[in-house]
Design brief:
With 350 residues, the protein is α/β, with parallel strands linked by helices. It contains 14 helices and 11 strands.
């Protein structure tokens, strides 16, 4: 099938991006601009069940198919048949993996467009440290590139996240007492990440928290999933009255509501970093095994990326690893609390 947009305006559009938090949030500029360009078109989305809430209240999305391998009515096979039955005018594959190809093969759609992953540049940068990227392009703009035939211009509005009033009221009421404790700033801390080489040293996070609480009289909110609870336990934050640990206690949207109350977020390269970007928070992002050329950095919000640029072994992966392949982990170990504090102070002074 020729991958070009036909002259006829597509009335039924399907977007496929199954995971994860950051990748899905990075599709939101495309959704917004597509809806602006084609306001009368219906836009549906395919996503994994655990990430459905990211789009649950998105005004541009008509229907969400969610893939759940544990539910016979929501398997890839069932969703594939539903897609075939709908006969979409346009399918936009922003995942481009085995599952997304399976969903789109023989799909009866008039056109299918796929995101160009820039595999060549990524391969040579990661494997041989040869940088063929001519400029740093955010993933959101790479997604938009596959719609160039629609002549969509980027609007510089960045990522988006939508809540409903009930979730907002519930979280603000639940944490009202903490949020009203006197303090100079509310700072979000994200000490976790899916892959070990994207996690800054816990002891350094402890130093940051100590500084912000004792020197800056700030309130600290720690964000993360259940998988991050051991990391947070090692931070020894129980002694601080002004530290709120929410790891494993909030859904994605609930975390978003609470993060919206922060003045700044200090985070590893993670899905919650993109959540902070979608909320237009000031972001200090700590990058270890990954680099900005790969496209996954804070976007369209005030930010500073703190990284060890003097290493010739970065990036060692485009998504992160479970251990440093060199054994020294200098990309994170040589980033000191002082460097991150300097970035925090610079952003807070603006």
């Amino acid at each position: 099938m020729k991958e070009s947009i036909a002259a006829q305006t597509p009335e039924k559009i399907l977007i496929i991006r199954l995971s994860s938090i950051g990748d899905i949030l990075l599709t939101t500029p495309l959704i917004r601009l597509l809806k602006q360009k084609l306001p009368d078109s219906r836009i549906d989305f395919v996503i994994k069940k655990e990430f459905v809430e990211l789009l649950a209240y998105h005004p541009g999305i008509h229907y969400v198919y969610f893939f759940d391998k544990h539910n016979k009515s929501n398997t890839l096979k069932e969703i594939r048949q539903q897609i075939r039955n709908e006969k979409y005018d346009l399918i936009i594959d922003l995942h481009k993996n085995f599952r997304s190809y399976y969903l789109t093969i023989f799909n009866r759609a008039k056109q299918t467009l796929r995101y160009k992953k820039d595999v060549f540049c990524r391969f040579f940068l990661v494997k041989f440290k040869l940088n063929f990227y001519t400029k740093i392009v955010p993933i959101s703009l790479r997604y938009l590139a596959c719609l160039k035939s629609l002549q969509i211009s980027y609007d510089d509005k960045g990522l988006e996240l939508f809540f409903n009033d009930d979730i907002t009221a519930k979280i603000l009421d639940k944490y009202n007492k903490f949020l009203n404790i006197p303090g100079t700033y509310v700072i979000g801390i994200v000490p976790g990440a899916k892959h070990a080489t994207k996690r800054w040293i816990p002891e350094e996070f402890s130093s940051i928290i100590k500084y912000l609480v004792e020197k800056r009289k700030s309130k600290i909110i720690i964000f993360g999933s259940k998988a991050d609870q051991d990391i947070v336990a090692s931070l020894n934050v129980e002694k601080y009255q002004y530290v709120l640990d929410t790891t494993g206690r909030l859904s994605i949207l609930e975390a978003g509501v609470l993060m919206s109350q922060c003045d700044l977020v200090v985070t590893n390269d993670s899905g919650l970093m993109h959540l902070a970007s979608a909320l237009k928070k000031k972001v200090v992002a700590i990058f270890g095994s990954t680099t900005e050329e790969l496209g996954f950095f804070p976007y369209a919000t005030e930010h500073i990326v703190v990284q060890n640029t003097g290493l010739n072994c970065r990036p060692c992966s485009h998504i992160g690893r479970e251990k440093c392949p060199k054994g020294h982990f200098k990309c994170m170990k040589e980033i000191t609390a002082e460097l991150v504090i300097e970035a925090v102070e610079k952003l807070l002074s603006k």
